[in-house]
Every structure is written in C-alpha cells, then in structure tokens.
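Morning F.,

Quick status update on the modeling queue. The single chain you submitted on Monday has been processed. Sequence for confirmation:
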Amino acid sequence: MKKRQRNVKKRVEEQSERRSRRIPTTRYDPDPEAGLTSQQVQEHRMHGWTNIAVDPPAKTTKEIVHENVFTYFNLIFIVLGILLCLVGSFRNLTFLPVVIINTLIGIVQEVRSKNVLEKMSMLNAPHARVVRDGKIKKVNSEELVLDDIVIFGAGNQICADAVVSSGEVQVNESLLTGESDEITKRRGDKLMSGSFVVSGECRARLDKVGEDSYISRLTIEAKAMDDQEQSEMIRSLDKLVKWVGIIIIPIGLILFSQSFFFNHEGFAQSVTSMVAAVIGMIPEGLYLLASVALAVSAMRLASQKVLLHDMKSIETLARVNVLCVDKTGTITENTMTVNRVEPTLDYREKEEEYPPLEKMLGDFAAAMSEDNITMAALKEYFQENTGKKPVSLTSFSSAVKYSSVTYKDGAYVLGAPEMVLRDDYVLYEAEIEQFTRKGYRVLVFGKYAGEIDGKPLTEKVTPLGYVMLSNPIRQNAPETFAYFAEQGVDIKVISGDNPVTVSEVASQAGIAGAENYVDASTLKTDQDVAAAMKKYTVFGRVTPNQKRQFVNVLKSQGNTVAMTGDGVNDILALKDADCSIAMASGSEAASQAAQVVLLESDFSCMPSVVLEGRRVVNNIQRSASLFLVKNIFSLLLSVFSAVFMITYPLEPSQISLISMFTIGVPAFFLALEPNKNRIQGHFLPNVFLKALPGGLTDVLIVGALVIFGQTFEVGQKDIATAATILLAIVGFMVLWKISQPMNPIRIAVLVGCGIALVFSSIYLGDLFAITAMSTKCIMLFIVFSIAAEPVFRYLSFLVEAIGKFGKRLFQWHEKNKGKTA
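Structure tokens below.
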C-alpha cells in the first residue's frame, strides 16, 4: 500500500511538472458547426493543451522491470549469496540462476501480456466525434485539444470538462457525485468529465482537458486506493509472502547463532546451514507462477476478443454463482425491429380527427435524434410523415421511460405503457398483454393533455396506437444458458421492459425458471427486494437504481455476482458487481466501466471465459501446494533444529535440486494445463490442506533420520545426501497425489522430472553436494524410505478428515448464526 502511495505521489509530481511545461495559449470560442481550424488544433498541441490521460492504463515496461527485480525476496537472495561468497561456498549459489531465470520469465511474460492487452485496448479505446474545419471526424479522446467542439450523444462518456454550445442532453453524474438523477444540460451549462449522456445530443466546447479536468483530479486521489481491490487468490498469496518475509530473518539469526555459538560449527558451515533453511522457507516461484498464469490467461482471452480491464476478474468470474443479465444485448441481439403498429380504440373512434397513425409516428421519429436502438428502429420503419414541425422535444429517459415531441397542436408521448398510461393502464392491460405474451416489446403512442417538463407525467394521455418491437434471440443463447445451468450458476434477468415480455424472451432463450417473473415497480422495501431475489428469475420494469440495489442485495446474501450490460443504465450495477461484463457494441461508458469487455459482443464466449478462470485458479491452487510443502518442511525443520540443538542438516544446493525437479518445473507445466473443475472453498485453506501431509511427512522422516544418524554416528554429509533423496521421494509422492487423475502430459512431467533428478544426482553430484553414503546410512535410508509412504498416506487421511470436520463445523456455525440473528 505504501509503495502504491509513493507511486501516486510520483505521478502527482509528474503531472505538476508536465503542467508547468505548458505554454500559455490563445483561447477560442469556435462556432459549433465549424469547430477549430487545423491551424488552431496544431497550436494547442504544440503548447501542450491536449487531452492525454492523467494516468497510463497499464504499467510501463520500466515499472514492470523495476517491480520484478527490486523485490524484498530478491534482496534476501542477494544478501544470502554474498554471505555464501564470503565463506567460499560457491557451489551453494545454485539458487541464484533459478532466481534470475524466475525474474526474467516474470518480466518477459508481463511485458508480452502488456503489449497484447494494449493492442486490444486500442480497439476499445474511448473515441469522440469532433468538429474541425466544418467537418465531423472520429478521433481517440486523447487526440482532442482545448476548445475542440465535440458531439456528445446517448451512451457517450464525457471525456473532458466542457460547456454546451448547442443542443440538449440528459446527463448522469452518478460516477462523480453518487447521485443518479438525470440532469438536463442546455446551452451554456457545464458538462463534467466522467459523467455520461443518457439521452439527447449536443455540441460542446472543451473547457478543461487532460490533467486539468475534474475526473483527472479525482483519479489522482482514487489511485491510492486501487490495490485494496485484490482477488482472494492474490490476497492470500500476499498474506503468505508477508508472513514468510517477517519470520525468515529471526529464524535465520537463531539458526546461525545456535550452530556457531552452541554447536561450535565453523563460520562457513553455520552460514551454509542457515542459508539452506531460509531458502527452503521462501516461496520464490509461487508469486511468479501466479503472475505468469494470469498473464497467459489474459493473452488467451485476448485471442478470443475478450479484453480484461482488471486481471482479478479472471478469478472472480470463475467463482460466480449468480449471473445478472439484461435482455437486450445479452439474451437478444443488440438490434431492434418494429414488427407492427396497432391503432387503439380511442384512435379508431376519432380517426377522422387525426392524420394516418403511421405518418404521426413518422413525424415523431423524424423529430427525434437516433440516440438509441429503439429510435433507430422507429426511424427506419416510419419514414413517411406529414412534415409537421416540432416546437420542443425530450429524449427518452430511463428514469421516466418516455420520450416526447410538442407541436403547436399539443404534445405527443411514446413510452412504456405503465409509465405513460399510469392509472388508466388497467383499462388497456388485457389488450396490451396479448402482445407482450408473444414476446413483443410494446410502446404506447398517445396525446398528452398537459405540458412536458421531462419529469414523470401527471396529466391524462389518450392512447392512439401500440408500437410492437422485438429483438432477435442470440443464436447461441440457449446453449450458453444451458452451460451455466449445468455449472450451478443462477441466472437473474433484469430488464426495464414489461416483465411478461421479458419472461417470454427468457423462455425462448432456455433460461430455467423464466416463468417466475415480477414487476420491479411493485418492490417497495428492502425486504421486498431481498425476498424477490430468492424467489424470482425475471425482473421487469427495473430502474437503474434498482439494478444497483439488486446486485448489492444478492451480494449481501453471500453470492458472488457477475453483471452483464451494454447501456448507460447498467453502469451503476456494473460498478457494484463482483465482476462486470460489457458488450463493446453497447455504450462507450459501459465498456469503460466494466472489468471484462466482449469486443465482438458475443455472449456465447462467456463459458470459455469462465473455464479460463477455473483453469487458472485450480491449477495455481494445485501448484501452490507443491511450493508450500517445501515451506512447511523448512519452517518446521528449522524449529526442530533449534529445539533439539542440531545444525540444519541440508545445504542450499540440495534444497535447489529438490525445488527444481519436484516443485518448480512440474508446477509450471501443471499451471498451464486445462482444468474445468468448479472452484470450491477458499484459496489458502485449500492449498494448506493439500500441502500439510507432505510437509509433515518430510519433517518426521528427515527429523527421525537426523536423530538416528547421530545415535549411530553417521557422518553429516551422508545424512544430508540421504535426507535429500528422502525429500525427493516424498516430493514425487506429493506430485503423484495432486496430479490425479493422471493423463499422458502429467505422466510425462513426472517421468521427465524423475529422470532429470537422477541424472543430476549422478553426473552433477559435486554441484548439488550428493555424495556416496556409508553402509549405516544406506540401511537408515532404506528403512525411512519404506516408512515414508505409509506415513504420508495416513497423514493425508488424517488431514482430509480434519478438513471435512472443519468444513461441517463452519457450515453448522453459519447456519446457527443466522438463526440466532
């Protein structure tokens, strides 16, 4: 955390320095139809007034190298290496090449991942429509300059502080202020960077760009908190590394003091044994393994056109048990078609007073901007009109669920039946439901008796026609939802449409429980919402605030929640979900807010994303237990040595030999294998329970060998060699157990590592301190190698039984805690 705060301070200083290098420039107030000239744009660029982001989206190559090289454990390794050089024990420096290789692998893999993700991010970079030299151009938001005229429409996120020059928009500033009210912005009003446009369209002049903008100042302050949002796996690894880092120094000092001052060993021998113990306790490859596995996963997902804004989302998505989806863009295609128009009885009775219904709708569509897929469908279908000129209009708002156009002869509205008709809805409900039950989305078009102010309607609406629209079901939707059902992931369909319509669409997509639907407008209290989340699958007439509330209620009920969305009304829920997924074809603001972006907007790739998460977490758990076996053994054997006043029996080179062929090499192969198993339990307990039998077996066998070796006066070098081979035997037993079920790749890894270890012991014996053993030592070795298998087997049974008992006890405690509460 302190390191992150130092980085933030450094970035603040860099921003201040960059700001001080800016040259004062001439301000312009261009015509909104013409924009800046090319010469004016170039002038602002030369003077440094561009919209470059306050913070790069990823670490630089320099930062990656620095973070991989200058680590706490690398410092420990360097100190240990210097101590071994001082005592002339050069062969025990075998751990240093492994440390260097690990560091290089980490740097190379992270840089490769960074380059791949940066290329993918460019495909999803925020863009803006800018007016220059009287022409509209689409550019990256970072290419904008001060005083540029930018066109903002529904779904766009405001990329710099601006002032509206023409037009009118409704803006949601919730990401900045926490208030989700939609605010109407007209000529002369300010637009805050970081907010997003809900409806309408305007042209605005950029007033503050880059680090001067409001969102940039917030970003600087927020960066200090970024590291708190870590996945369970990374948090567990951080915790493990932290405690190991704390205990190795006092244990190392105790072992050296005991060996040198109490056992009267030589200085060189005391240093060597202490270094061996400390190296054995450091999980030097574990953090690297996790980083490389996550980086490889990010690259694999990138090849499937899935962009990760946040690496932790890989693990989180693999643990998800509730998936909240919107109807449009997820279950259905992100396109809409007008199927038919049905006049109401009110229209038919007074048909001579009105123009043809299709032409009235044509006038309405012609007046509106094409700022959502519904209006795009209306404009395409209703192309004939009477040419009537509007006096004013309001774009569609998700809060009030209608849009309106006012003419000289009155105001007309188009929107959701319940919101437009209100108390009169019951009079038309049966007629409307005959359409919604067929899966149509129904909009009511009618004449309003009052004046439109953009707020909920209060006066009577005379319905003139029903407009029926539909979205085609995604081709792979049934297969995708069937997969999630098999995996025990509950689906919650959350939509702003009529619940009957949404239920029918969900049924067509094969979502289990789609017949259980509710109108969210009837859920008034938190208790209503909590009960509904357990009972229903489909939620209709959901407001943006309710989407967010639903996600938080599901999380409070102990679920890991993923939320998919593509519209601006999904952003608040996306922000609060454990894992957020956006379609790139949706709004720009939603894509920037989400952790996972489906660049081809194909929801059918979600199973492969989940499987990738499971592969990573399960394989890292399995490989991490290999590292922890060595750490548990070294820690307990160090305590054993201190208590019984014996010198730590192994040398650093012997620890390196065991680590290489029973931990390091197999761990990396296993971490990249396919693994479709569901993730169960918590990371650290899972890893610890798998590692404990092996670690305890190592301590019991090696500890007994040392005691018996002293009793029978076996030489220290013989004991060290026998202990190394015993550790190798137990290591392969552990490797065999966690590799179940075996397959050709795992067998090849086991056999290959076994052959490599035997070869190194025979032909590189001097390098790894493997010597010929005396007859007494061979006899002791045979006895303890035979004993190793039953000790490991019974300890495994015991630890598994304790683990199951602990799980039942925890479940019983949680159950009774709920009853007590």
